[in-house]
Design a protein that fits this description.
single chain, alpha/beta, Isopropylmalate Dehydrogenase, 2 domains
Protein backbone atom coordinates (compact mmCIF):
# COMPACT_ATOMS: atom_id res chain seq x y z
CA UNK A 1 0.00 0.00 0.00
CA UNK A 2 1.30 3.45 -0.94
CA UNK A 3 0.23 6.53 0.98
CA UNK A 4 0.55 10.12 -0.21
CA UNK A 5 1.82 12.37 2.59
CA UNK A 6 1.92 16.15 2.36
CA UNK A 7 4.98 17.40 4.27
CA UNK A 8 4.97 20.97 5.61
CA UNK A 9 8.25 21.59 7.41
CA UNK A 10 7.49 25.18 8.35
CA UNK A 11 9.82 27.52 10.21
CA UNK A 12 12.48 27.45 12.94
CA UNK A 13 13.17 23.90 14.08
CA UNK A 14 10.35 22.60 11.84
CA UNK A 15 12.59 21.28 9.03
CA UNK A 16 14.92 19.53 11.49
CA UNK A 17 12.23 17.65 13.40
CA UNK A 18 10.17 16.76 10.33
CA UNK A 19 13.24 15.30 8.63
CA UNK A 20 13.63 12.88 11.54
CA UNK A 21 9.96 11.89 11.47
CA UNK A 22 10.26 11.18 7.73
CA UNK A 23 13.37 9.09 8.39
CA UNK A 24 11.44 7.01 10.95
CA UNK A 25 8.55 6.58 8.51
CA UNK A 26 11.03 5.34 5.91
CA UNK A 27 12.25 2.77 8.44
CA UNK A 28 8.63 1.73 9.02
CA UNK A 29 8.19 1.39 5.26
CA UNK A 30 11.09 -1.06 5.06
CA UNK A 31 9.74 -3.07 7.98
CA UNK A 32 6.00 -3.17 7.32
CA UNK A 33 5.70 -3.44 3.56
CA UNK A 34 3.98 -0.09 3.11
CA UNK A 35 5.34 2.87 1.18
CA UNK A 36 5.01 6.63 1.23
CA UNK A 37 5.12 9.35 -1.39
CA UNK A 38 6.13 12.61 0.27
CA UNK A 39 5.12 15.95 -1.28
CA UNK A 40 6.63 19.06 0.29
CA UNK A 41 4.66 22.31 0.56
CA UNK A 42 5.16 25.68 2.25
CA UNK A 43 3.15 27.23 5.05
CA UNK A 44 3.90 29.84 7.70
CA UNK A 45 6.71 32.36 7.63
CA UNK A 46 8.58 30.62 4.83
CA UNK A 47 5.43 30.81 2.70
CA UNK A 48 5.10 34.53 3.46
CA UNK A 49 8.67 35.04 2.27
CA UNK A 50 8.09 33.00 -0.90
CA UNK A 51 4.47 33.79 -1.82
CA UNK A 52 3.43 36.74 0.32
CA UNK A 53 0.76 34.73 2.16
CA UNK A 54 0.98 32.26 5.08
CA UNK A 55 -1.09 29.57 3.33
CA UNK A 56 -0.75 29.44 -0.46
CA UNK A 57 -3.64 27.88 -2.34
CA UNK A 58 -1.19 25.40 -3.88
CA UNK A 59 -0.32 24.10 -0.40
CA UNK A 60 -3.96 23.57 0.47
CA UNK A 61 -4.50 21.70 -2.80
CA UNK A 62 -1.53 19.39 -2.15
CA UNK A 63 -2.95 18.64 1.30
CA UNK A 64 -6.43 17.90 -0.05
CA UNK A 65 -4.96 15.46 -2.58
CA UNK A 66 -2.98 13.60 0.10
CA UNK A 67 -3.89 10.83 2.51
CA UNK A 68 -2.48 12.82 5.43
CA UNK A 69 -0.45 15.90 6.35
CA UNK A 70 2.70 16.00 8.50
CA UNK A 71 3.53 19.45 9.87
CA UNK A 72 6.52 20.83 11.77
CA UNK A 73 6.01 24.27 13.32
CA UNK A 74 5.44 27.82 12.09
CA UNK A 75 6.25 31.34 13.19
CA UNK A 76 9.12 33.34 14.58
CA UNK A 77 10.21 36.88 15.44
CA UNK A 78 10.95 37.70 11.80
CA UNK A 79 7.22 37.86 11.08
CA UNK A 80 6.01 39.53 14.27
CA UNK A 81 4.00 42.70 13.79
CA UNK A 82 2.27 41.58 10.60
CA UNK A 83 -1.52 42.06 10.34
CA UNK A 84 -3.49 39.31 12.08
CA UNK A 85 -4.59 37.60 8.87
CA UNK A 86 -1.04 37.62 7.50
CA UNK A 87 0.84 36.03 10.39
CA UNK A 88 2.34 32.54 10.11
CA UNK A 89 -0.21 31.39 12.70
CA UNK A 90 -3.02 32.50 10.39
CA UNK A 91 -1.82 29.74 8.09
CA UNK A 92 -2.57 27.21 10.83
CA UNK A 93 -6.11 28.52 11.29
CA UNK A 94 -6.56 28.54 7.52
CA UNK A 95 -5.43 24.96 6.95
CA UNK A 96 -7.62 23.68 9.79
CA UNK A 97 -10.64 25.41 8.32
CA UNK A 98 -9.71 24.50 4.73
CA UNK A 99 -9.42 20.79 5.56
CA UNK A 100 -12.45 20.78 7.87
CA UNK A 101 -10.41 19.67 10.89
CA UNK A 102 -12.60 20.23 13.92
CA UNK A 103 -11.09 17.85 16.50
CA UNK A 104 -7.60 18.14 17.95
CA UNK A 105 -6.35 15.14 19.93
CA UNK A 106 -3.42 15.84 22.24
CA UNK A 107 -2.15 12.95 24.38
CA UNK A 108 -0.05 13.71 27.46
CA UNK A 109 1.77 10.65 28.78
CA UNK A 110 4.48 10.38 31.41
CA UNK A 111 6.98 7.77 30.26
CA UNK A 112 8.51 5.72 33.05
CA UNK A 113 12.03 6.62 31.89
CA UNK A 114 11.20 10.34 32.09
CA UNK A 115 9.27 10.39 35.36
CA UNK A 116 12.04 12.37 37.05
CA UNK A 117 11.79 15.06 34.34
CA UNK A 118 8.31 16.04 35.52
CA UNK A 119 8.33 19.27 37.56
CA UNK A 120 5.73 17.74 39.90
CA UNK A 121 6.62 15.90 43.08
CA UNK A 122 7.14 12.13 42.75
CA UNK A 123 4.14 11.50 45.01
CA UNK A 124 1.88 13.30 42.53
CA UNK A 125 3.13 11.56 39.39
CA UNK A 126 3.86 8.24 41.04
CA UNK A 127 1.02 6.47 39.28
CA UNK A 128 0.23 6.21 35.60
CA UNK A 129 -0.43 9.55 33.88
CA UNK A 130 -2.10 9.14 30.50
CA UNK A 131 -4.36 12.05 29.50
CA UNK A 132 -6.01 12.75 26.17
CA UNK A 133 -7.10 16.35 25.59
CA UNK A 134 -9.80 16.60 22.91
CA UNK A 135 -9.87 20.22 21.78
CA UNK A 136 -12.52 21.73 19.52
CA UNK A 137 -10.54 23.26 16.68
CA UNK A 138 -12.59 25.35 14.27
CA UNK A 139 -15.00 27.29 16.49
CA UNK A 140 -14.96 29.46 19.57
CA UNK A 141 -13.08 32.66 20.17
CA UNK A 142 -10.33 31.95 17.63
CA UNK A 143 -12.87 31.95 14.80
CA UNK A 144 -15.52 34.31 16.18
CA UNK A 145 -16.24 37.84 15.07
CA UNK A 146 -13.54 40.29 16.09
CA UNK A 147 -12.79 43.94 15.74
CA UNK A 148 -10.68 46.91 16.80
CA UNK A 149 -11.10 50.62 16.40
CA UNK A 150 -8.36 52.97 15.34
CA UNK A 151 -5.07 52.20 17.06
CA UNK A 152 -3.74 54.78 19.48
CA UNK A 153 -7.00 56.62 20.00
CA UNK A 154 -7.91 57.73 23.54
CA UNK A 155 -10.76 55.23 23.67
CA UNK A 156 -9.04 52.38 21.85
CA UNK A 157 -10.82 49.04 22.15
CA UNK A 158 -10.88 45.55 20.67
CA UNK A 159 -13.09 42.49 20.95
CA UNK A 160 -13.14 38.78 20.13
CA UNK A 161 -16.34 36.72 20.19
CA UNK A 162 -16.76 33.26 21.69
CA UNK A 163 -19.49 31.50 19.72
CA UNK A 164 -20.51 27.85 19.47
CA UNK A 165 -23.38 26.09 17.72
CA UNK A 166 -25.09 22.91 18.92
CA UNK A 167 -23.74 20.79 16.00
CA UNK A 168 -20.18 21.94 16.69
CA UNK A 169 -20.44 20.87 20.32
CA UNK A 170 -22.21 17.60 19.48
CA UNK A 171 -19.52 16.38 17.08
CA UNK A 172 -16.57 17.15 19.38
CA UNK A 173 -18.39 15.58 22.34
CA UNK A 174 -18.89 12.35 20.38
CA UNK A 175 -15.17 12.26 19.52
CA UNK A 176 -14.39 12.49 23.25
CA UNK A 177 -16.87 9.82 24.32
CA UNK A 178 -15.73 7.44 21.57
CA UNK A 179 -12.11 7.94 22.66
CA UNK A 180 -13.00 7.33 26.31
CA UNK A 181 -14.76 4.08 25.36
CA UNK A 182 -11.36 2.75 24.25
CA UNK A 183 -9.57 4.05 27.35
CA UNK A 184 -10.57 4.26 31.04
CA UNK A 185 -14.11 5.44 30.36
CA UNK A 186 -13.97 8.91 31.96
CA UNK A 187 -14.74 12.20 30.20
CA UNK A 188 -14.12 15.53 31.91
CA UNK A 189 -15.84 18.39 30.09
CA UNK A 190 -14.14 21.71 30.83
CA UNK A 191 -16.01 25.01 30.51
CA UNK A 192 -16.76 28.29 32.30
CA UNK A 193 -20.50 27.78 32.66
CA UNK A 194 -20.71 29.94 35.78
CA UNK A 195 -19.84 33.00 33.64
CA UNK A 196 -20.14 32.37 29.89
CA UNK A 197 -23.38 31.74 27.99
CA UNK A 198 -21.46 29.77 25.35
CA UNK A 199 -20.20 27.50 28.14
CA UNK A 200 -23.72 26.98 29.47
CA UNK A 201 -24.75 25.74 26.02
CA UNK A 202 -21.59 23.61 25.89
CA UNK A 203 -22.46 21.93 29.19
CA UNK A 204 -26.09 21.31 28.17
CA UNK A 205 -25.12 19.66 24.88
CA UNK A 206 -22.30 17.53 26.31
CA UNK A 207 -24.64 16.31 29.06
CA UNK A 208 -27.28 15.35 26.49
CA UNK A 209 -24.75 13.51 24.27
CA UNK A 210 -23.45 11.61 27.31
CA UNK A 211 -26.79 9.79 27.52
CA UNK A 212 -25.82 7.95 24.33
CA UNK A 213 -22.78 6.55 26.16
CA UNK A 214 -24.12 5.00 29.37
CA UNK A 215 -20.85 3.20 30.10
CA UNK A 216 -18.85 6.44 30.22
CA UNK A 217 -18.55 8.59 33.36
CA UNK A 218 -19.01 12.31 32.67
CA UNK A 219 -17.59 14.99 34.95
CA UNK A 220 -17.93 18.75 34.48
CA UNK A 221 -15.20 21.12 35.63
CA UNK A 222 -14.64 24.87 35.39
CA UNK A 223 -11.49 25.73 33.46
CA UNK A 224 -9.76 27.47 36.38
CA UNK A 225 -10.29 24.41 38.57
CA UNK A 226 -9.13 22.12 35.74
CA UNK A 227 -5.89 24.08 35.47
CA UNK A 228 -5.35 23.61 39.20
CA UNK A 229 -6.32 19.92 39.22
CA UNK A 230 -3.90 19.10 36.40
CA UNK A 231 -1.10 20.09 38.75
CA UNK A 232 -2.66 18.82 41.97
CA UNK A 233 -3.86 15.40 40.77
CA UNK A 234 -3.29 14.73 37.04
CA UNK A 235 -4.00 11.01 37.46
CA UNK A 236 -7.73 11.70 37.87
CA UNK A 237 -8.05 12.64 34.18
CA UNK A 238 -8.64 10.28 31.29
CA UNK A 239 -10.21 12.28 28.42
CA UNK A 240 -10.63 16.05 28.67
CA UNK A 241 -12.96 17.68 26.14
CA UNK A 242 -13.08 21.44 25.88
CA UNK A 243 -13.27 24.51 23.68
CA UNK A 244 -10.69 25.83 21.27
CA UNK A 245 -9.00 28.35 23.57
CA UNK A 246 -9.31 26.35 26.80
CA UNK A 247 -7.92 23.27 25.02
CA UNK A 248 -5.00 25.25 23.66
CA UNK A 249 -4.03 26.38 27.16
CA UNK A 250 -4.74 23.19 29.11
CA UNK A 251 -2.93 20.92 26.67
CA UNK A 252 0.21 23.04 26.98
CA UNK A 253 -0.06 22.80 30.76
CA UNK A 254 -0.50 19.02 30.49
CA UNK A 255 2.59 18.84 28.30
CA UNK A 256 4.79 20.30 31.01
CA UNK A 257 3.52 17.75 33.53
CA UNK A 258 5.18 15.13 31.33
CA UNK A 259 8.52 16.90 31.57
CA UNK A 260 8.83 18.55 28.17
CA UNK A 261 6.59 20.03 25.53
CA UNK A 262 8.99 18.40 23.08
CA UNK A 263 7.44 15.01 23.84
CA UNK A 264 3.82 15.67 22.89
CA UNK A 265 2.27 14.92 19.50
CA UNK A 266 -1.16 15.89 18.21
CA UNK A 267 -3.73 14.87 15.61
CA UNK A 268 -6.26 17.18 13.98
CA UNK A 269 -9.17 15.28 12.48
CA UNK A 270 -12.34 15.99 10.55
CA UNK A 271 -15.12 13.95 9.03
CA UNK A 272 -12.91 12.59 6.25
CA UNK A 273 -9.32 12.65 5.06
CA UNK A 274 -6.75 14.04 5.37
CA UNK A 275 -5.80 14.47 9.00
CA UNK A 276 -3.12 16.92 10.11
CA UNK A 277 -0.37 15.73 12.47
CA UNK A 278 2.05 18.01 14.29
CA UNK A 279 3.94 18.45 17.57
CA UNK A 280 2.18 20.82 19.94
CA UNK A 281 5.30 22.92 20.51
CA UNK A 282 6.30 25.98 18.52
CA UNK A 283 9.10 26.74 16.09
CA UNK A 284 11.72 27.50 18.81
CA UNK A 285 13.77 29.87 16.62
CA UNK A 286 16.31 30.32 19.44
CA UNK A 287 17.62 26.77 18.91
CA UNK A 288 16.90 26.38 15.18
CA UNK A 289 19.76 24.85 13.24
CA UNK A 290 21.68 23.84 16.38
CA UNK A 291 20.75 20.12 16.47
CA UNK A 292 19.19 20.62 19.93
CA UNK A 293 15.46 20.21 19.21
CA UNK A 294 13.59 17.15 20.44
CA UNK A 295 12.08 15.34 17.42
CA UNK A 296 10.10 12.83 19.50
CA UNK A 297 6.82 14.80 19.45
CA UNK A 298 6.95 14.93 15.66
CA UNK A 299 7.90 11.25 15.42
CA UNK A 300 4.99 10.35 17.70
CA UNK A 301 2.74 12.56 15.55
CA UNK A 302 3.75 10.37 12.61
CA UNK A 303 2.70 7.34 14.70
CA UNK A 304 -0.69 8.98 15.33
CA UNK A 305 -0.98 9.57 11.58
CA UNK A 306 -0.43 5.89 10.93
CA UNK A 307 -3.07 4.97 13.51
CA UNK A 308 -5.83 7.52 12.94
CA UNK A 309 -5.65 8.37 9.23
CA UNK A 310 -4.02 5.36 7.61
CA UNK A 311 -5.28 2.53 9.81
CA UNK A 312 -1.77 1.06 10.16
CA UNK A 313 -1.96 0.22 13.86
CA UNK A 314 0.94 -2.24 13.85
CA UNK A 315 3.21 0.36 12.26
CA UNK A 316 2.09 2.95 14.82
CA UNK A 317 2.88 0.51 17.65
CA UNK A 318 6.30 -0.07 16.12
CA UNK A 319 7.18 3.65 16.36
CA UNK A 320 5.74 4.14 19.84
CA UNK A 321 7.57 1.09 21.19
CA UNK A 322 10.81 2.22 19.53
CA UNK A 323 10.54 5.60 21.30
CA UNK A 324 10.05 3.87 24.67
CA UNK A 325 13.05 1.58 24.08
CA UNK A 326 15.34 4.45 23.14
CA UNK A 327 14.28 6.40 26.24
CA UNK A 328 14.72 3.31 28.41
CA UNK A 329 18.28 3.03 27.09
CA UNK A 330 18.94 6.48 28.51
CA UNK A 331 19.14 8.66 25.42
CA UNK A 332 17.96 12.24 25.93
CA UNK A 333 17.77 15.48 23.98
CA UNK A 334 18.70 18.58 26.04
CA UNK A 335 15.11 19.40 27.01
CA UNK A 336 14.71 16.09 28.89
CA UNK A 337 18.30 15.75 30.10
CA UNK A 338 17.25 16.51 33.68
CA UNK A 339 15.96 12.94 33.96
CA UNK A 340 19.49 11.63 33.51
CA UNK A 341 21.06 9.67 30.69
CA UNK A 342 23.13 10.39 27.62
CA UNK A 343 22.46 13.75 25.98
CA UNK A 344 22.15 13.54 22.22
CA UNK A 345 21.02 15.77 19.35
CA UNK A 346 18.05 15.98 17.00
CA UNK A 347 19.59 13.92 14.22
CA UNK A 348 21.01 11.33 16.58
CA UNK A 349 17.68 10.84 18.36
CA UNK A 350 15.90 10.36 15.04
CA UNK A 351 18.54 7.87 13.91
CA UNK A 352 18.32 5.90 17.16
CA UNK A 353 14.53 5.57 16.90
CA UNK A 354 14.71 4.60 13.21
CA UNK A 355 17.32 1.95 14.05
CA UNK A 356 15.11 0.61 16.82
CA UNK A 357 12.20 0.37 14.37
CA UNK A 358 14.36 -1.65 11.96
CA UNK A 359 15.53 -3.88 14.82
CA UNK A 360 12.04 -4.74 16.12
CA UNK A 361 9.65 -7.27 14.66
CA UNK A 362 6.25 -5.66 13.76
Amino acid sequence: MNYKIAVIKGDGIGPEIVDQAVAVLEAVSEKCGISFTFSEALMGGCAIDEYGVPLPESTLEICKESDSVLLGAVGGPKWEGLPGDMTPEAGLLGIRAGLGLYANLRPAVIYEALREASPLKPGIVGGKIDILVVRELTGGIYFGERGRNEKGTPKEWAYDTERYSVPEIERIARIAFEAASKRRGIVTSVDKANVLESSRLWREVVTRISKDYPGITLNHMYVDNAAMQLVRNPGQFDVIVTTNMFGDILSDEASMITGSIGMLPSASLGSGKPGLYEPIHGSAPDIAGQNKANPIATILSAAMMLRYSLGENAAADLIENAVIKVLDKGYRTPDIASSGGTVTGTKEMGRLIAEEVRRTEP
